[in-house]
């Protein structure tokens, strides 16, 4: 009976690890970097993407028993609890709602908590040569069984989210993206004012939306700022040349909200060289959005809205 049949499967997680260089004792005594006090760009957390982190990098394999339907996050938690407590990764909700656990899995930006072992494990040696000396070209699952033994599901490669500086192991520094979103005022600036009645009570009002307006708002407000689209975008690199697809989706969410009164100012804010003009319409941002937003199409529509106003 194979391992698959008796329910015992193994997978190897190949993790790109990174340990930052220890802060120098002299800097600590001074209360951090001396540059920070002189407001150098290197000391400002808002520009941390410019700084190249220094430290030790290495690849580490962890092989563990799994069920094929386990998520990659389940595997990492198991490693953290039973094999290596030093392994660092970030997560919160565990079911695709918070966006905190975006990493690169087999080179594709995606969420740890929604990626299953069965979908992402790949044969560790797909170019196996068979007993007669022929290179195997058959079904990948055959190769997998022969190459790594019954029940071995193969390898999953993990790295921090591309396009962002790494802080430690699988944790990327996403401050740059959050600051870019913040700059675009991601909150409702409504036209309505709370009026009071003659006897001092609040005169409540309501915003009416038609079903199309509501649907647009609901779709775009699904964004969880995970950064997966940014990690997929060949133009965005955590720097300042392009504000990035996540920030543009945040802008679009309010520009298309019929209750917001600042659409023109919001469009002015993204009508810049590092805004919509920097988007090359590659549309790689669309492919991996875990919230089902067609990011490339939404940005395309946003560009048309800005140009046609
Ligand atoms: S648009 Fe999609 S991929 Fe991009 S940050 Fe929002 S949820 Fe993540
Ligand atoms: S842990 Fe919240 S989205 Fe994955």
Outline of the structure:
This protein is of the alpha+beta class and 309 residues long. It is built from 13 helices and nine strands.
Give your account of this protein's structure.
The protein is α+β, with helices and mostly antiparallel strands and 309 residues long. Helices cover 32% and strands 16% of the residues. The chain contains 13 helices and 9 strands. The strands form 3 sheets. The chain has a 5-stranded mixed sheet, with helices on both faces. Strands 6-7 form a two-stranded antiparallel ribbon. A two-stranded antiparallel sheet has the order 8-9. A hairpin with a 5-residue loop joins strand 8 and strand 9. It is elongated and about 70 Å long. Mean pLDDT is 84; it is low at 1-5, 31-49 and 136-148. Bound molecules: iron/sulfur cluster (SF4) and FE2/S2 (inorganic) cluster. Iron/sulfur cluster binds next to helix 9 and helix 10. One of its GO terms (molecular function) is 4 iron, 4 sulfur cluster binding.
Low-pLDDT segments, ≥5 res: 1-5, 31-49, 136-148
Q: What does the average pLDDT come to?
A: 84
**Quaternary structure state of the chains depicted:** single chain
Total beta strands? 9
The radius of gyration is 24 Å
Write out key terms for the chains shown:
single chain; 309 residues; alpha+beta; Fumarate Reductase Iron-sulfur Protein, Chain B, domain 2; five-stranded mixed β-sheet; 9 strands; 32% helix; elongated; binds iron/sulfur cluster; binds FE2/S2 (inorganic) cluster; 4 iron, 4 sulfur cluster binding; metal-binding; 4Fe-4S; succinate dehydrogenase; 2 iron, 2 sulfur cluster binding
